[in-house]
UniProtKB/TrEMBL annotation:
Its cofactor is Mg(2+). PANTHER family: PHOSPHO-N-ACETYLMURAMOYL-PENTAPEPTIDE-TRANSFERASE (PTHR22926), PHOSPHO-N-ACETYLMURAMOYL-PENTAPEPTIDE-TRANSFERASE HOMOLOG (PTHR22926:SF5). This is Phospho-N-acetylmuramoyl-pentapeptide-transferase. It holds the Pfam family MraY_sig1. GO terms for cellular component: plasma membrane. Belongs to the glycosyltransferase 4 family. MraY subfamily. GO terms for biological process: cell division; cell wall organization; peptidoglycan biosynthetic process; regulation of cell shape. Catalyzes the initial step of the lipid cycle reactions in the biosynthesis of the cell wall peptidoglycan: transfers peptidoglycan precursor phospho-MurNAc-pentapeptide from UDP-MurNAc-pentapeptide onto the lipid carrier undecaprenyl phosphate, yielding undecaprenyl-pyrophosphoryl-MurNAc-pentapeptide, known as lipid I. NCBIfam families: mraY. GO terms for molecular function: metal ion binding; phospho-N-acetylmuramoyl-pentapeptide-transferase activity; UDP-N-acetylmuramoyl-L-alanyl-D-glutamyl-meso-2,6-diaminopimelyl-D-alanyl-D-alanine:undecaprenyl-phosphate transferase activity. Its EC number is 2.7.8.13.
Amino acid sequence: MLYYLFKYLNQLDFPGAGMFEYISFRAALAIMTSLFIATVFGKKIILLLQKQQIGEIVRDLGLAGQMEKKGTPTMGGIIIILSIVVPVLLFAKLDNIYILLMLITTVWLGIIGFVDDYIKVFKKDKAGLSGKFKVAGQIGLGLIIGLTLYLNDDVVVREKTTMAEIGIQTELVDEGFTSEDPSITRLTMDVKSTKTTIPFFKNNEFDYESLVAFGGEYAPMLAWLVFIIITIFIVTAVSNGANITDGLDGLATGSSAIIGATLGILAYVSGHVVYADYLNIMYIPNSGELVIFIAAFIGATIGFMWYNSYPAQVFMGDTGSLALGGIIAVFAIIIHKELLIPVLCGIFLVENISVMMQVSWFKYTRKRFGEGRRIFKMAPLHHHYQMKGYPEPKIVTRFWIIGIFLAIITIVTLKIR
């Protein structure tokens, strides 16, 4: 909202109003505002949660220090959501389709998580919201994101072309791209595209249309169908992965902050025509505005760490964890970096896989031998290390270090092909 106010003031030559035109300036304001909300107002929200006796229900699993967490305020994800939404509403362009999708994602999954936490706390039902309703909500969000990216005319990719390659009426922009042959005029055109970034391959791009080449003239439409299905899968998998990872003080929050910082770098270069050309990656018009959103996301997660670090004064609950995972998934999809998720979100992936392996092996061995056997001492993986006697802060710190390593690999893939 302030963006539009200062844009108007800039037309009146108001001193300093032009600063709001710069994404970097608004991103800095967003991260500072989100940090302020999370740390200052976060304390007030924690006191309110304590007053309402909204405490964590803990099952005794025999983990060190586990029962000490009983009664710690939960539903702290409200702090994260407010710390993201308020700065974005203040500093971002609210007519940008990508910003609107990110706000919808944040609120949508935040509500699903809130209902789950509400049932656990106030209805005293440890199971919370039924799994099928959670999945239905995640699928619904995936459909909204996928269909919007398919149908909205503002969602395009700018591709390099030449005069000889243009066979349709389109807007051409001379972006100053260089060409090996000086006689060739290098121009660009904005197109709907099912291409995405794929790591370690020479051209760094993969087109979903190649999966449905058998469709002939219907291949482009089938490609979007494949894209929507993949979108639903990624949103569901990553949001659940973040939810599973949220088992130790600061683990999910810190991991999300690291992932968010990496996505911010990827969004900035993807939305900047010069950097996109230099790195030879696809340029996505208007996606640079996402830097303001991810700046608020980083500020919110770091600010929440003030109270969520060991020993935690508040837990985010499903209100926060589902929203964090969904934000990461949708953000990566929008900037065409969803195939980097297995690397970037390796912590979430391993946590998810550890649970699936444990459950599958237990069921298989119980059916075959009459007694269930386990691969890990406990799943998810972070509890396995707890059972082995590692202190909670050490586990969290080492997971963060691995997360930073994976983040560096993700960024490096832009040039290693």
